[in-house]
Design brief:
Layout: H1 3-35, H2 37-55, E1 63-71, H3 75-84, H4 88-98, H5 104-108, E2 111-115, E3 121-128, H6 131-152, E4 158-162, H7 177-200, H8 207-214, H9 227-248
């Protein structure tokens, strides 16, 4: 037999051994999870219930409304001009005009001012639990802002492109994705805990471990029998003996 055939034969044997080892490892992993499957199910159900409770909590629907305007100001002034919109001097005018029962800082937290792709176009977005009030605050804020900008900064070239309109669609629509997240989190944590407990368990679990520890080859094993099973087996043997004596006589 030449060297090439020997190498091919050795390679084939190695492949078979690797496949066998992989099969044994997969089977061992499956048996590890199966042994504590109740723990995986319990943790998964626990997290799923928590996610369901969190998803079912009462939540006030919120609505958003936006107005667009263009501000003709230099790039150096643009940052200051946009910051001015959410200042108390503008917020107090809006509160007074709409007779709102809230502070300037509270109203400020409901308003967001953004530029469109770094251009002169500015979008003012207001979030409120009343869709009509959100639109009213955005429009009143734009008008109050135009007055304050003209008085304090001398900027009069502010043109409204789009007024805010009532948007009946809530922005915090309830989603069931939290249920899926809870289910997956419970499943992953459950399986992880099973393998953690298995790694901390120092007891001997298979014949292979006995052979590795003692360096001896096992010839056989005695299965675990309960006292009830042993009693049934003993009665069965006695019955066979009695029938054998009757037949012989």
């Amino acid at each position: 037999m030449d060297v090439t055939k020997l190498e091919e034969l050795q390679s084939s044997r190695n492949d078979k051994e690797r496949l066998k080892t992989k099969e044994i490892n997969l089977k061992a992993l499956f048996l590890t999870v199966k042994k504590r499957l109740w723990l995986v199910v319990l943790i998964t159900m626990f997290f799923s219930v928590l996610a369901g409770i969190y998803n079912a909590r009462p939540e006030t629907p919120m609505y958003a409304s936006s107005a667009r305007m263009i501000i003709a100001a230099s790039s150096e002034m643009m940052g200051t001009v946009r910051v001015l919109f959410r200042e108390p001097i503008v917020m107090n005018k809006v509160i007074e005009q709409l007779n709102l029962e809230r502070s300037a800082s509270s109203l400020r937290s409901q308003i967001r001012v953004d530029s469109v792709d770094g251009s002169l176009v500015t979008v003012v977005t207001v979030i409120d639990n009343d869709p009509q009030k959100a639109a009213d605050i955005a429009n009143a804020g734009v008008e109050a802002y135009r007055q304050v900008a003209a008085e304090t900064l001398g900027i009069t070239n502010i043109k409204v492109l789009t007024i805010a309109e009532m948007n009946p669609n809530s922005i915090n629509v309830r989603s069931n994705s939290i249920l899926f997240v809870g289910l997956m989190a419970g499943l992953i944590l459950g399986i992880g805990l099973v393998f953690l407990l298995d790694s901390l368990d120092d007891s001997i679990k298979s014949e292979r471990e006995i052979e590795e520890l003692l360096g001896l080859t096992m010839l056989g094993q005695v299965t675990k029998m309960r006292r009830k099973d042993y009693g049934k087996q003993l009665k069965k043997q006695k019955s066979i003996l009695v029938r054998g004596e009757t037949i012989g006589s």
